[in-house]
Amino acid sequence: MIVVVCPGQGSQTPGFLSPWLAEPAFAERLSALSAAAGLDLAKHGTESDADTIRDTAVAQPLIVAAGLLALEALTADGRASRLGGIAGHSVGEITAAAGTGVLSDADAMRFVAERGRAMADAAAQAATGMSAVIGADEDTLLARLAELGLEPANFNGGGQIVVAGAVEALDALKAEPPAGARVIPLQVAGAFHTRYMAPAVDRLAEVATTLSPADPTLRLWTNHDGRIVTSGAEFVDLLVGQVSSPVRWDRCMAAFADAGVTGIIEVAPAGALVGLAKRALKGVPAVAVKTPDDLPAAFELIDAAAA
C-alpha cells in the first residue's frame, strides 16, 4: 500500500519550482493556481529569496501549489486508483484535501491564501517562535514546557517534537534543555499550532462557510489524531481547528503502519517527511518527488505495489 504525503511550511527553498516550470504544462497549471491564490507563485517559486518565501502568507500557498503540481503528475494515467491513501503535514493537509477531492484546487488555494494571511497576522501580535527538540523524554519535556508556558506544536515522531511560544521562554528552554535533548530554533514567524493562533481560527471558520466540500475519494488521515476521516465536511472543520492545535504526525505514521504501508511518496517540495518516515517507519521504501526527474522512481514504487 502506497501512501502519499504532503509537506508543510519550512520545506520550501529558493528556486525550487524552476525545474517544474521548465515544462509548459506545469507552468500553465501554476498560473491558474496563482490566480486562485492572488499571488505570483511562479515568481516566488523561481526568483524570490529565502526571506521572502519564509513569509507565512507566501510560503503556505507556494507549498500547496507545488504539491498540487506534483500530485497531478503522480496520479495521471490511472495511478490514483493504485494509491492506498494520502495525508498532509500541517498546511500540507490542504494539499491532501485537494488531492482526494475534498476541496477543488481553486477552493484549496483560496483557503490556503487566507490561512497564510491569518496566521501571519496572528503571529504579528506577539514575539513568538518555534524550536525543534530532539532526543527528549516526552513526559519530561511536556513538564518543562508547562513550567515555561510553552506548548508542543508538532509531534513529528522519531524523537522529534517541535515546541512553540514566547521567544524568551524558548531561549530559556535552549539554555536549560531536558537531559539528553537538543533544542534547535526554527526560522519561522510565530507559534503555529498553539493558542497564539486563535485569531486565525476565527477567520478560517468564516472562509470555511463558503466552501463546498465533498467526501474524500482516497483514504485520508488527519493530523488531529491520526485517524481516517470519511466526511469532507468534517475534514474541513478539522483543517480550521488544526491551526491552533498540535500536529500529530507521529500518530499519522503509526496509522500508516497499522494500515500496512509498503511505500511512501512525498510530493514537492519534498524531503522532510521522507526523512521522518525513515526513522519512524524503518524499512519502508520512500521517494521524495522534488523535481519532475523524481517522478519515474515514484511511478516505479506505485507500479511495484500494484503488481
Describe this structure in words.
Helices cover 49% and strands 14% of the residues. The chain has 307 residues and is α/β, with parallel strands linked by helices. It folds into 2 domains: 2-123 and 194-306, Malonyl-Coenzyme A Acyl Carrier Protein, domain 2, CATH 3.40.366; 128-185, Alpha-Beta Plaits (2-Layer Sandwich). The strands form 2 sheets. It has a 5-stranded mixed beta sheet. A 4-stranded parallel beta sheet has the order 2-1-8-9, sandwiched between helices. The relative contact order is 0.17. It is an enzyme of class 2 (transferase). Residues 5-294 form the Malonyl-CoA:ACP transacylase (MAT) domain. One of its GO terms (biological process) is fatty acid biosynthetic process. Pfam families: Acyl_transf_1 (PF00698).
Strand order, main sheet: write it out: 6-3-5-4-7
CATH architecture of the largest domain, please? Answer: 3-Layer(aba) Sandwich
Outline the low-pLDDT stretches.
none
Biggest beta sheet summary: 5 strands, mixed
Whole-number tally of structural domains: 2
The first-level CATH class name of the largest domain: Alpha Beta
> What's the CATH superfamily of the largest domain, by name?
Malonyl-Coenzyme A Acyl Carrier Protein, domain 2
Molecular shape: globular
Looking at the structure, the CATH topology of the largest domain is: Malonyl-Coenzyme A Acyl Carrier Protein, domain 2
Percent of residues in beta strands: 5-15%
Q: Averaged pLDDT, please?
A: 95
Instruction: Determine the structural class based on helices, strands and strand pairing.
Output: alpha/beta
Q: State the helix count.
A: 14
**What's the β-strand tally?**
9
What is the radius of gyration computed over CA atoms, rounded to a whole number of angstroms?
18 Å
Percentage of residues in helical conformation: 40-55%
Protein name: [acyl-carrier-protein] S-malonyltransferase
Organism: Agromyces sp. G08B096
InterPro entries: Ac_transferase_dom_sf, Acyl_transferase_dom, Acyl_Trfase/lysoPLipase, Mal-CoA-ACP_Trans/PKS_FabD, Malonyl_transacylase_ACP-bd
GO cellular component, one term: cytosol
